Each structure stands twice: as structure tokens, then as C-alpha cells.
Amino acid sequence: MSSSYKPLAGKVALITGASKGIGAATALELASLGANVVINYSSDATPAEALVKKIGSEQAVAIKANAGDVPEIERLVKETVDKWGKIDILIPNAGVSPMATVEQTTEADFDKAYQLNVKGPYFLVQKAIPHMSSGSHVILLSTSLCALSSITPNYLLYVSTKGAIEQITRVLAKDLGTKGISVNAVAPGPTGTDLFFNGKSQQLVDTIASWNPYKRIGEPQEIARAIGFFAGSKSSWVNGQILRVNGGMTVGPC
């Protein structure tokens, strides 16, 4: 990808769930800054391969793997290191957003949500650490819903997984910071991805947009730019932080 400004030249970024939505926008953003990117996907190779073609095969590769399965995670890390020899930027982005109150939640729902949203990122970091040097970055994904006081009960299962991610961010930063590796999280507000729009009426989308002082939904590229900040040297003194990228939908210390 052409750009005169390449602060991430020579860096290797591994992004799970990177073929669509925020993950795809992040792959494009980091590639535009010079990084080599691994585009992980779970099933449909078509959008992943299209993204590789857009970025350029010399700078991007698509790898199929279940980001919630530990043996698959190990293989994903191995193939990344076999390709580029290291990992500088780790972004566990893959996730699901189940909608269920406590009464509606089945054990299968719970296990699936925690496997991909919590277990996957936890063990991806564990397997990647041996290949990350001082100056590397782990960037986790949470949600601004964790700080929304008007949240409705059907978000319980989803936000409970992201609450776990926020605590992982806080404590892991204390651990990996001793190795010179920063750990931060980006917590998007409502963002205009296919996953967000799926099953929502225009009236509901407009209602959600009305929660924001800008009266609109965020764009994937806006989230990607925040991730890009955490991925570079300009964030060198930022560690253990949760950045809520939501246009002011939620404000305050939470």
C-alpha cells in the first residue's frame, strides 16, 4: 500500500478476526503505516484473500484458524513466525456478541462466548510472548458498553466477556511491562460493521445513534486509527489503559 509515512515499516502485526469489520479496517490501517499483517479468519477465505490482494501479497498473508481453540492458536502463531520471524503487534480482535439475559443464556451460549472472547485472547498472548521483544504491543478489544449506565439486560453475556478483557488488560500490563511490552485495550462504541447492522431496523440504528452527541454511528476506520496509535512508538508511555472510542457516548473515569 502506498504512503510516504511508514512508522511501522518492518513490524509484524497479527490480527485475529481480520477479514471483516474493525479487524479488516485495522489490517488496512497498519499496512498503510508499513506493517506486515497476518489476516486471520475462521471460515470464509474470500474476504480475507480480497484484503490480501488489496494490501499486496508481499505485505499481507491470510491464515485460517479458530481464534478460540488453543491448538489452532499455536498453529496461527507458528505460521506467523515461520513467515516473518517475529510478532511486534498482537491484536486479538476475533469475537462474538451474543444477546442474552441471564434467564435466556444456555451453557452452550456461555461457553462459546467465553471461548472466543476471553480464552482465545488469553492464550493467544501466552503463545505469542516468546516471539515478542521489548517495544512490542498487545492491543485488546473491549466495548464502551462496559461503561454505559443505560445498558439493557440482554447485553449481559457479551459485556461480561469484555469486562474480563478489561481486567486482563490492567493486570497483564503489569506483567508484560517488565518485558517492555505494552498492553492496552480499545473499547469501541457502536460501529458501522456488518455485524452491528445485522438484524437491526433503521429505527433502532437511529435510536442508538441518538445516544451519541454527534448523532451518528462510528466508522471502522475510526477505531482502526486508535488501534494504530497503540501499535506505534508514539504510545510508548501508555500501558494498561482502556481507550473508549465512541465519540462521547460514554464519558468519565470508568
Automatic annotation (TrEMBL):
A Pfam family the protein falls into: adh_short_C2
InterPro entries, sorted: NAD(P)-bd_dom_sf (IPR036291), Sc_DH/Rdtase_CS (IPR020904), SDR_fam (IPR002347)
Recorded superkingdom: Eukaryota
MF terms (GO), sorted A to Z: oxidoreductase activity, acting on CH-OH group of donors
Record key words, sorted: NADP, Oxidoreductase
SUPFAM superfamilies xrefs: NAD(P)-binding Rossmann-fold domains
Presence of the UniProt keyword NADP in the record: yes
Family of the protein in this entry: Belongs to the short-chain dehydrogenases/reductases (SDR) family.
Protein name in the entry: NAD(P)-binding protein
Native source organism of the sequence: Lophiotrema nucula
